[in-house]
Specification:
single chain, 39% helix, 266 residues, alpha/beta
Length: 266
């Protein structure tokens, strides 16, 4: 059993063959797929898909690159949508400095709002962080905001996921201290990403699998549309890193994901 903890299945690139894509995922052993939001409309699209397919789960949040266009009413809608039973996480939210580090001063404020919403609802927090290559200001700022907004981590229950882990090398330890997991996707298969080396000292139980479909397609399919079935390629690479079987990776990472999203049922 595999779980894809991050896939944008409502994306228009899946409009023509979604049923086939989900069938391929089932054939690859993918049991559940979690759909992160980027804005209010994407939450509603995700909920519509959840009504059609019983193995999909929705999230609710405003992506940091969408906060420039977002109004307070939009965040109020996110709060209301988090009351929907099919919404199982607050995400994806965070900081994105890739285009311009200070293009929108509201990013930190919206991120803090999402952190507080996660705490108030008890839903896990799914964090997006992006910087220019080899710059980690978004990561440093995010850790500072999390340390400021969150109470001390002392109950052992995971709080969320740092999605699309690609570094820096100090983030796994910082994430663990805050109670967060690492979402590992296609980048782990990229030759020069450095992700494999950074994971060698990270406990396998701190990792969950993701695709970020239709983005971040793993080798050997880079340049093509990504899809949940390819989370198996991520699992195979992680099995190589940890010198274990793909079945062990699937079992451990899926159990970790279930504990995060459904802590009362595990």
């Amino acid at each position: 059993m595999l779980i894809d903890t991050h896939a944008h299945m409502y994306d228009s690139r899946f409009a023509d063959d979604l049923d086939t894509v989900l069938e391929r995922a089932r054939d690859a052993g993918v049991r559940e797929i979690y759909l992160p939001a980027v804005d209010v409309e994407s939450v509603r699209l995700a909920l519509n898909l959840c009504a059609r397919f019983d193995n999909l789960r929705a999230m609710a949040a405003i992506h940091p690159t969408y906060v420039l266009e977002a109004a307070d009413d939009d965040f109020d809608n996110i709060i209301q949508l988090c009351e929907t039973p099919q919404v199982v996480a607050v995400g994806e939210c965070g900081l994105d400095y890739y285009w311009d580090e200070y293009y929108d001063k509201r990013q930190p404020d919206f991120f803090a709002r999402h952190i507080r919403l996660s705490e108030e609802t008890g839903l896990p927090l799914i964090i997006h962080l992006r910087d220019k290559r080899h710059h980690y200001n978004a990561h440093r700022d995010a850790v500072r905001i999390l340390e400021r907004e969150l109470p001390p981590f002392d109950d052992g229950r995971a709080r969320g996921i740092f999605h699309c882990f690609t570094g820096p090398d100090w983030l796994p330890e910082a994430a663990a201290k805050l109670g967060f997991l690492l979402g590992v996707g296609g980048a782990v298969t990229f030759k020069n990403s450095g992700v494999a080396d950074m994971l060698r000292d990270v406990p396998l139980r701190q990792i969950v699998l993701e695709t970020d479909a239709p983005y971040m397609t793993p080798v050997p399919y880079r340049g093509r549309r990504n899809e949940p079935a390819r989370v198996k390629l991520v699992a195979e690479k992680i099995a190589e890193i940890y010198s274990c079987t793909v079945a062990e990776v699937a079992e451990i990472t899926s159990a970790t994901a279930r504990r995060l999203f459904y802590p009362d049922s595990v």
